[in-house]
Design the sequence.
């Protein structure tokens, strides 16, 4: 019976061969005597703690004669690791299959056109109700309240809801905060004559707001808080007293108008004690324009808008820029 070499084991030298001091990790026995002689059995071991020549030959012979079930026992006795090809192949990884199955599970369910349209209608009603308070409406609130299972179609549904609002109700859905994706509704049909602001049951409040926006623009696009209060006092609207129409004037201006994004209220840098100023908010830019505000001021003072050269040129430039932007978006 021919002998077979155990795979991965140190190669045993044949009878009468001379295994000199080989390279590092090879056997270091000098094989002058015959196989199995006492000299060979007592030869030095390898630098790596290997077996003597006789031990290696005996191990190879035992592996050759052993059946498949006995080979593991021989290797264990020799404290040697049986290498790859004869080892049990690893089980195939299930990560790819589980990953693909999870992807299948996460794949959104196909919706019918009727289901999508139903969500569009629900979102339209939601936006109309939320607009009653004139507060910005966040995309996250739309998804959380209406579009929970339709999050993957949120952009499509919001766009279609915007078309319905504009065509049916004359309201334009505008995004005013790209960071938090906040929207407002702008009334394109009903406006206060001469000022371009929205007309609703709060006409008086809008008139007061128009005065403040005009003051801000005429003062270089910002107005100190103290100046605003002084101007309102001249109009017999005392911010320190409760007004019969506006109620708490300071709360209306600093809280309500600011939350509705008509105004911004910021601290003036490097002021001590701290001072604050008002600026136009993003909703104001969408619902009116500097030219409309200038015409409002001119109408009150019975003058032509061009009487204020600096403000008129600035308003004219804004009008031209808005027209160019509208032309680009239309294309």
Sequence:
């Amino acid at each position: 019976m021919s002998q077979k070499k155990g795979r991965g084991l140190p190669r045993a030298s044949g009878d009468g061969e001379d295994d000199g001091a080989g390279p590092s990790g090879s056997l270091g026995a000098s094989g002058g005597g015959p196989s199995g002689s006492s000299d060979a059995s007592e030869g030095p071991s390898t630098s790596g703690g290997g077996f003597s020549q006789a031990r290696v030959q005996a191990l190879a012979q035992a592996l050759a004669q052993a059946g498949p079930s006995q080979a593991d026992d021989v290797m264990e006795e020799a404290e040697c690791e049986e290498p790859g090809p004869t080892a049990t192949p690893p089980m195939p990884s299930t990560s790819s299959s589980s990953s693909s199955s999870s992807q299948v599970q996460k794949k959104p369910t196909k919706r019918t056109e009727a289901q999508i349209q139903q969500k569009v209608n629900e979102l339209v009603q939601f936006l109309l109700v939320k607009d009653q308070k004139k507060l910005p409406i966040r995309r996250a609130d739309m998804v959380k309240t209406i579009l929970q299972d339709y999050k993957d179609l949120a952009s499509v549904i919001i766009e279609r809801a915007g078309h319905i609002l504009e065509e049916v109700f004359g309201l334009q859905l505008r995004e005013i905060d790209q960071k938090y994706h906040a929207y407002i509704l702008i009334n394109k049909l009903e406006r206060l004559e001469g000022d371009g602001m929205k007309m609703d049951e709060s006409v008086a409040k809008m008139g007061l707001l128009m005065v403040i926006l005009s003051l801000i623009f005429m003062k270089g696009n910002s107005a100190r808080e103290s100046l605003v209060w002084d101007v309102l006092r001249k109009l017999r609207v005392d911010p320190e007293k409760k007004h019969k129409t506006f109620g708490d004037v300071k709360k209306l201006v600093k809280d309500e108008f600011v939350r509705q994004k008509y105004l911004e209220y910021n601290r003036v840098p490097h002021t001590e004690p701290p001072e604050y100023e008002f600026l136009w908010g993003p909703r104001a830019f969408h619902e009116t324009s500097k030219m409309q505000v200038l015409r409002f001021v001119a109408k009150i003072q019975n003058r032509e808008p061009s009487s204020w050269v600096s403000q008129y040129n600035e308003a004219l430039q804004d009008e031209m820029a808005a027209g160019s932007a509208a032309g680009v978006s239309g294309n």
Observations:
- Residues 89 and 157 are 52 Å apart (CA to CA).
